Amino acid sequence: MDVAVGIVAQRGNERAQRLAGTLLETLERDHGADVVVDEATASAAAADATDETDDLPGVAVEEMADRDLVVSIGGDGTLLFVARAIGSTPLVGVNLGEVGFLNAVDPADAEAVVTDLVTIIEAGDPVPGRDLVRLEASAAGESWILEPALNEVLVHGPRRGHSGGATIEIRVDGTQYVETHADGVLVATPTGSTAYNLSEGGPLVHPDADALVVTGMAPTEPIAPLVVDQDASLSITVSNAPEAFVIGDGRNRRAVEPPVTVAVSTADEPGKLVGPESNVFEALEKLE
Ligand SMILES: NC(=O)c1ccc[n+]([C@@H]2O[C@H](COP(=O)([O-])OP(=O)(O)OC[C@H]3O[C@@H](n4cnc5c(N)ncnc54)[C@H](O)[C@@H]3O)[C@@H](O)[C@H]2O)c1
Ligand SMILES: Nc1ncnc2c1ncn2[C@@H]1O[C@H](COP(=O)(O)OP(=O)(O)OP(=O)(O)O)[C@@H](O)[C@H]1O
Q1: Does 111 share its domain with 145?
Q2: Which of 45, 71, 134, 190, CA to CA, is 20 to 30 A from 102?
Q3: Cβ atoms of residues 218 and 230 within 8 Å
Q4: Average pLDDT of 219-240?
């Protein structure tokens, strides 16, 4: 079978775009793979006629959801952006970013890793990888459901900082944990525990732990970060503020009108990261 691959390179990053072109050429030549790149990369290549990535077939990232494999080349932000668009499609991240927690593959190894994955898919063998739990959120009385998030869902008042908070009540399976004034609260997955959660004083959650963590953001009375089961039903009520926001992975944002109760739970479909696994402890050293 012809393996269908999508490649997304970080917008504006020439090195990522060049690597996308090289990968496309190798996969087409050596595997007869059917390869497309994202529209921004295709336009950048077309604009630079002397570039080896001239005339790449470009599609919207959302259209890569039916591919056998999608490769993200960039930093964590680029991988989160791709993951949002493709749902549970197998995704591998090549790290050209500053931190690169989610991107386990060094650019020097990208060709070898991606061709190995394509060979495995061609053979119909199980692709090595991990399911990553994702979070979704909805607000009582509203019809939207926040697109699943790999890192965290944040619920906060009008803005961060002085006089920007709200009264926040957190309930777990219907039982009140705490009610206090705070900038907001975040619910993080193990994947997201190294991101915003960590800077708000939340704990690291090992990737193998089936847990979620609930961390207060600048509460007036300290809230102990709470570890809950991934099946827990979490509800966060925001009141005493003119407006509030529900935000997934820093990008998907919904405005809500307090008083409002936001339910956060795990999504049915996990994200699927394939290829080698990042060493979280090594990656943490980059943050210091
Ligand atoms: N104060 C903070 O620590 C802070 C602030 C904003 C966003 N973030 C994180 O960035 C993510 C993306 O938001 P954005 O697109 O607005 O910002 P962004 O893409 O600019 O990312 C912000 C930083 O968070 C890092 N990051 C992202 N996911 C990570 C993870 N799982 N583990 C460790 N570091 C990670 C990125 O490498 C980057 O350095 C959010 O999900 C949030 O967790 C963190
Ligand atoms: N190919 C692309 N097409 C469209 N938008 C893109 C593309 N690549 C990145 N983006 C946008 O840029 C954002 C991520 O870029 P960002 O500058 O945060 O870089 P990053 O991947 O986190 O790397 P770094 O670690 O260098 O910051 C995504 O959320 C998305 O909005």
Answers
A1: no
A2: 45
A3: no
A4: 97
- Residues 172, 110 share a domain: no
Ligand number, closest to the Cα atom of 284:
1
Q: What distance in angstroms lies between residue 256's CA and the mean position of ligand 1's atoms?
A: 23
* Residues 140, 262 share a domain: yes
Instruction: For residue range 88-115, list pLDDT tens digits in order.
Output: 999 999 999 877 889 999 999 999 999 9
Q: Which protein residue's CA is at the shortest distance from atom 23 of ligand 2? A: 75
Complex ipTM, two decimals? 0.90
| Total domains in the fold of the chain | 2
Q: What is the pTM of this model?
A: 0.93
Whether the pLDDT of residue 287 is over 80: the answer is: no
The alpha carbons of the chain give a radius of gyration, in whole angstroms, of 20
Instruction: Kindly state the tokens that stand for 23.
Output: 């990968």
Alpha-carbon torsion (199, 204, 210, 215), positive or negative: negative
**175 annotated to bind ligand:** no
Task: Reduce the DSSP state of residue 209 to 3 states and report it.
Answer: coil
Q: Is the CB of 76 under 6 A from ligand 2?
A: yes
